[in-house]
């Protein structure tokens, strides 16, 4: 128990969501995932017992997370499933339930939800991690700071084929109509 280093290596991340990026939709990953930006959708680790997700103090996730190792120092609105280890750093804010095997909370971290010790015992005797999470769209709460109305509009819209990009910034149709009315 003491003296063991059971934490995964946190210095190598295969995938990075930068601070200027926003992802709308579910994200499946393996290996390491570091989030500095915003993800509006569910994040699910593939069958990789060493998969780790780290949400920095600038990172925002609106959706559920399912990964063996989770490190949160940003904002999460949704449930978190971690069958190995979850760490809530000093700036972590979680609005949702946490299902865990081992949890580490630093002074200053906040959880608005239930903590449920679900994944205990030997790995072969534990309940399986969710391969998919709720099919409902994430709810955008006022508690999550976001400065992008475009991401909310895109999350509410039905998926369509992606238009060819011209390098111009997309503008919501409602914004164009409002400007014409003036």
Automatic annotation (TrEMBL):
Region (Disordered) location: 122-182
Compositionally biased intervals (Low complexity): 151-166
Domain of life from the UniProt record: Bacteria
One Pfam family cited in the UniProt record for this chain: Bactofilin
Family: Belongs to the bactofilin family.
UniProt-recorded name of the protein: Cell shape determination protein CcmA
